[in-house]
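#onboarding

Welcome to the new folks! Below is a worked example of what a typical request in this channel looks like: someone posts a single protein sequence, and someone else replies with the predicted structure as tokens. Don't worry about understanding the tokens yet, we'll cover that in week two.

Example request:
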Amino acid sequence: MAIVTNHGICGDFNLIYKDEDKNNGHVNRRMMGKFRHNGPRYTWSNGQTPSTMVHLDRVLCTTEWEERYGECHLRYLASAVSDHSPLLLDCAPTPQPYRRFHFEDYWIRQDSFHETVMNAWNSVQDPEPFKQLMIRLQATARKLVSWSVSTIGSVRHKMALSRELLLRLDKA
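Example response:
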């Protein structure tokens, strides 16, 4: 079965791209088409012993579709009811990776550091102790990041300027 749209096709093609897509040497080289390898090594099994396993299930698309929906991700799912691997084409936007908080040692030497931490910590109250701890830590991290940007500025930018200055001094 295959699903066809204006921009692509997905389904069970019963064709393979290369010898490695099947676990034995019984291949029809004439039928090997323009498939690209993706996903698990094999997506179908005959369920016998010895088992024949083949990479059959794929999704193909046009260049236009890929340019328009390039954020989609194909996932192969496990199946207990079929000898094929179900395919899930997920076009939901991927969540942005969570940026971790990085504490800088030099912050504690800044005049307004302790006051910033105390104000952020005391700005949150919750009756549940563990929830309060989590919210206080998050609020303090957010406040320290914004405080650092406004008080200290971009350390990476300052380091780049310092390296450039040192390089010019070395040349002089």
